[in-house]
Each structure stands twice: as structure tokens, then as C-alpha cells.
Amino acid sequence: GGPYTEHRMSSMFARLSYNYNERYMIQATIRRDGSSRFGINNKYGTFPSVSVGWNVTNEEFMADTREWLSNLKVRASWGKNGNDNIAEFGYTSLTAMGNNVLLGKDAIKWNGSKAQRLANPDLKWETTISRNLGVDFGFFNNWVRGSLDYYWNTTKNILMKVPIDAASGYSYQFQNVGKTSNKGIELALGFDIVRGKDFNLGVNLTYNYNKNNIDELMDGVLADT
Q: Which terminus of the chain faces fewer neighbouring Cβ atoms within 10 Å, N or C?
């Protein structure tokens, strides 16, 4: 014997890409996801994203710099992503067996059951908004190259098993609570020391700075920063 559960997803996806003369690039995406882990009120979530890029080195006014500036590209992106990572049927109340009682003068045992947790029909997708600004660069036929990125991610409606007042008859309920943020900078540098037909030697360096913060607690209470 053992437990058995099902998890089903339904998704629709569309994407549009445009590239003008290898100079200006844009890509837009939208997806619509549904999960069996949410009730009828919020079963589906819509998650769009967009990214743009400008290949500066391909501009005509950059022609005189191409001998030493082999690559310069500026880019930006914004997008939403959803998370349904909770227990199956987290929006509803499951029935638990084994709550037996003794009734009557002969204390006959009767099999019983009860609701295992408090339902939350308004449970919905946890959502993360991602933002990114970046630049790619290369010098002297990319002998020296690198990228610099700044990112800022915000997660809200976080899915959590929240303890509730025992007077309700239950110990917890799945809820959407709190808000967190994640900000940082990433720098990557590469250097070629030797370029040969059968042998290459180079050095790659990376630097990362990241700050995580709890911005909001339960019931909209602001957290100390």
C-alpha cells in the first residue's frame, strides 16, 4: 500500500522574434499555464516576457572602431515566471481516515474521517518578476572579452504552509504570503594568451555580488531591511 497523487499541467505558449540587419533585436513571449494544484478561482496564470538588444558594433558610425572594438552589444529584459511547487490539491481540504470513535454502552468502535487541513480556494501562482540590464564587449578580435549584468528579481505571493490558530480545528493552511527581492551584479572577463591551430590558452574571471532581502511578511507587514 501507499499514497498516489496526480499532478497535471496545461500550457499555451507564443513567441515573436524580430532581427533588423543584425543591429536591433527584440523577442516577446507569453505563456498561459494551468495547474491542478490550484482551485477554479486561480487555476491559470499568465506570464509575459520581453527582451531587446542593440548590436552597436554593426552601426555605420562604429566602422572606424572595429579594428580594436570587435564587439559591443547592449541588452535588456523583463519577464514573469510562475511557480506551483506545493503539495497536490493544496487549495482544497483532503479527508484523513483513522479518526475512530467508541460509541454506545458496548463501546463499539466506529471508523471515522475528518478534513485534514483548511481549504483555500483563492490560492494562486507564486510569481517572480525578473529584470536584467547587460552589456557584452570584446576587444582586438575578442582577445579580451567580457560581459556585465545587473539583475533585480522580485518574488511575491509566495506559496507557504502557514500555521493557523488551533481553535480553528486545523494546524496549517496553504497561503500566498510575503515578498522577497534579489539584486546583484555579475562581471565576466576572458583573456586569450595563446591562439593556435591546435592549442589555445586563456584565462576567464568572474565576479558576482548578490543581495537577498525579505521585503514583506504575512498580511502585508513590511519587513526590516
A: N
Q: Distance between CA atoms of 17 and 118, rounded to whole angstroms?
A: 45
Q: Could you tell me the three cell numbers for 71? A: 564587439
Per-residue pLDDT of the chain (225 residues; tens, 9 = 90+): 777 888 899 999 999 999 999 999 999 999 999 999 998 889 999 999 999 999 999 999 998 998 899 999 999 999 999 999 988 888 888 777 777 777 777 777 878 887 777 889 899 999 999 999 999 999 999 999 999 999 999 999 999 988 888 887 788 888 999 999 999 999 999 999 998 888 889 999 999 999 999 998 876 666 554
Gap between the Cα atoms of 84 and 37, Å rounded: 7
The structure's pTM equals 0.82
The position carrying cell 591562439 is: 195
First vs last C-alpha separation in the chain: 49
Distance CA 71, CA 101 (A): 76
